[in-house]
Amino acid sequence: xxxxxxxxxxxxxxxxxxxxxxxxxxxxxxxxxxxxxxxxxxxxxxxxxxxxxxxxxxxxxxxxxxxxxxxxxxxxxxxxxxxxxxxxxxxxxxxxxxxxxxxxxxxxxxxxxxxxxxxxxxxxxxxxxxxxxxxxxxxxxxxxxxxxxxxxxxxxxxxxxxxxxxxxxxxxxxxxxxxxxxxxxxxxxxxxxxxxxxxxxxxxxxxxxxxxxxxxxxxxxxxxxxxxxxxxxxxxxxxxxxxxxxxxxxxxxxxxxxxxxxxxxxxxxxxxxxxxxxxxxxxxxxxxxxxxxxxxxxxxxxxxxxxxxxxxxxxxxxxxxxxxxxxxxx
Length: 330
Hints:
330 residues, Rossmann fold
């Protein structure tokens, strides 16, 4: 039994603010987008009462984390470093907890043809495709290979890097004579190009979060680019794309889209958060396009739109994910 003169109990560790490092930047084509996402995340977390520090993924990162350990790390890196699993593998080696999917799952999601193969293997619908490295065109003759692609997949086509994000290198090709130039342009972003049958329809961004009760889909965001194609220009030029949340689709289609996003998240072994990109054709079929393990989190990104449509505060949701990871690692 304590008396009035007894000292008050010391504050518990839980009373201390969560200390988080937000990783952004990196040395990829998507550096500026990543810095924008990271800055937004740090600001949202600060408003949610989290001690958030924004850091680049450079040679000072690991010594800094060793000298001043964070409770958890949030990865707001886009492009190879943040999404192909390599950074996460290093954080695993260092014993640093982080929000997001494990390294092996990231490697699978980063490889778009591989991710499409997994989705198709579990009954998901995805546009037909072929993925070929630059060496194939050089060794077998670009003209002959391109003729076979058009004969197999038809026109129009979507040409995109087999890995990567932010719609970099993505082009719609409607004429045979435009295909060689599109391929050359796409090879600037990677050694392997994926050529995919174009599906006309309503493009959706499908955010998924897992706060401990299993992955849940948030309201779908509809993308309506003025050009009809959600490429890099449409994504990042103000006024060129309209966004509608929730998407203007029938309830049954929205349900199927949500189920697809959750299936992708589970089957690829993803964790915490993801964003699946899909398209709904005229018959209401939902086609899987790709999945992002480090979705954009800028003020104009689709993931925050979905969070807002779900009635959640972005900073509080991210803080909850970080708190779970910090506690799990202890």
